[in-house]
Amino acid sequence: MRAIIPVAGVGSRLRPHTYTAPKVLLNVAGKPIIGHIMDKIIENGFDEATIVIGYFGDRIKEYILKNYPIKVDFVEQEERLGLGHAIYLSRHTFSRSPILIILGDTVFDVDLKKMMDSRDTVLGVKEVEDPRRFGVAEVSNGYITRLVEKPEHPKSNLAVVGLYYIQRPHNLVDALREMVKSNYRTKGEFQLTDALQMMIDRGEKMTTFPVEGWYDCGKPETLLSTNHILLDSMPTPTTPAGVVAQPPVYISPKASVVNSVLGPYATVADDAVIENSIIRNSIINEGARITNALLEDSIVGSNAHVTGSFKRINIGDSSELEFY
Ligand code: UTP
After folding, report:
1. pLDDT tens for residues 301-323?
2. CA-to-CA distance for 136 and 176, rounded, in angstroms?
3. What's the CA-to-centroid distance between 267 and ligand 1, angstroms?
4. Cβ atoms within 10 Å of 61's Cβ, excluding its own
5. Is any ligand 1 atom within 6 A of the Cβ of residue 101?
């Protein structure tokens, strides 16, 4: 079984972090976002993946090859022309067997086998209060009749969450090919939603599957709330002497922590150095150094340095902040 994971986007909503790293390599609850996705598909028996890379693609490729020994094809999307375009470019990597498309900025907790136990194409959905910023599915008699991308006046509250089980990929490829050939774009991009709608119009049976555990990582506040939710379900680590951990926390065994209070909801990645500090509800990325600081609701980029004072910050890689 093959998963298609598009991760070519620039992740503009997560700047400054995405100025220096791809979004999917940001740490959440102890590993990069894409690490959670890879672990989930492998746990569900997938043995092949296609990863569509672009922005900082080499970094993603390096991480995957180093950590995941399954068959992975990397496809380069040089121009970011939309999700539909990303999938279209990857068409040579899959056959007529069903595929699962998973967006690269979503961590999910769902029984994939159950979702894929269908003869139809199945889209993961979640009921949300305000569906206007999502793709929305309208359903009648158990089948999706219409898919609308970010509607101003939604007719349903079922948001499409970024998990698509495509039963007959050749039908999707036909629709995408037609879209690309006729340059059919919405908001300037080739949308996967439009291609799926085209398939429905041609008689494809499409159903929905409820996904309660859907954790967005696309913005600083959602990355922090996903960190919070994932840490809640993780075991408490043993902590070094001189460190007070208020679980839930993740402290990498490769981090150095001295005379500090971590948590609740702190993630401290490899090679981070924390001294005389209090850190809660925050993500401290690889190699960052925090000294004499009290941080809350913060994301600190790789190799960034923070010294002194109480602050709420969101600083990118290799930055230096000193408060006196
Ligand atoms: P998003 O719409 O979240 O875009 O794409 P983005 O670049 O990641 O983030 P923002 O909106 O600028 O903050 C959803 C998923 O589809 C991929 C992205 O990498 C992300 O995993 N994608 C999107 C592509 O691979 N190619 C595209 O042309 C567009």
Report:
1. 999 999 986 666 667 776 766 66
2. 19
3. 25
4. 15
5. no
